[in-house]
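Input sequence (315 aa), recorded before submission:
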Amino acid sequence: MAGLWHLSGAQLHDLNGNIYPGAKAYFYEAATSAKLTVYQDYGLGTAHPNPVQANAYGVFPAVFFDETDEFYRQIITQSNGVTIPGTDLPVLPIIGPSGGGGGSEVPVDANSLFATGDVMWKPVSGTKAGWVRCNGRTIGSASSGAAERANADCEHLYLYKWQTYSNTLCPVTGGRGASAAADWAADKPMAMLDLRNKAGFGLDDMGNSAANGFSGVTFALGNATTAASSGGTAMHTTTVNEMPSHGHALTDPGHSHSTGGNDTADQGSGKGVKNNTTNGSTGTSTTGITLANTGGGAAHPNMPPFMLGTWYMRL
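Predicted structure, token format:
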């Protein structure tokens, strides 16, 4: 890796505040007079002349070291070659991003940065610089008339979404053409993913075998193992099949009706009267009582505890 000289972009002054136009910085191997190669770029591709000269305002350009050199010596003079007091430093460490030698030409780990297409949720509303909201509206070029953002800085995200998501998920106005670059050049707007009122869940397989955690779930779009698929509902009306099997206790003891009376018959003159009395019951019967229906059949909330915010996608 490369290390940046600590006086890069700095302006030197004397004790009276006067600048040193055209000052010269000499670089050597530590504690020697052997000149050290320094560079104009972080990639160490183009060497500086040695000495490196400040401009008319006394400002030095960016100077880069090869970290493998580890240490260096500097001497800074006025434009006439007179050494500026206190600037002859025989041993200075080369300090770069890693603090060690060798490595990549990237000053920070790219994996620690947000990349195009990365998604972020924040408990805020409104836009965010460098990001676009995942609200189903469109992005495109400055001439596209896109509803969410029409700007040249959308190009990388446009190409990423075109190649990553289907036209069902991120439709291109007028239909997709031969390539992402062609649609961008044709000023066709493309819709963002629509994450309004949606939470995120892991794919059912996610590089492993399916966990079958979505068994029986109906998807509005896609399926359990396809990224950006969606489903679920905020309200739900319970069906008869979804109700727990149950009964309602009802006791009907039944009841009976008693009967009775006299049976009188004329046996003829002088033969007397015979009385017959009959007592009995009609038997036991039920009333036929039934329970009336109740409940309105309305949908019930189907939401867990939640907090609202905004889903963003990196440009």
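Checked by second reader. The two ends are 28 Å apart (CA to CA).
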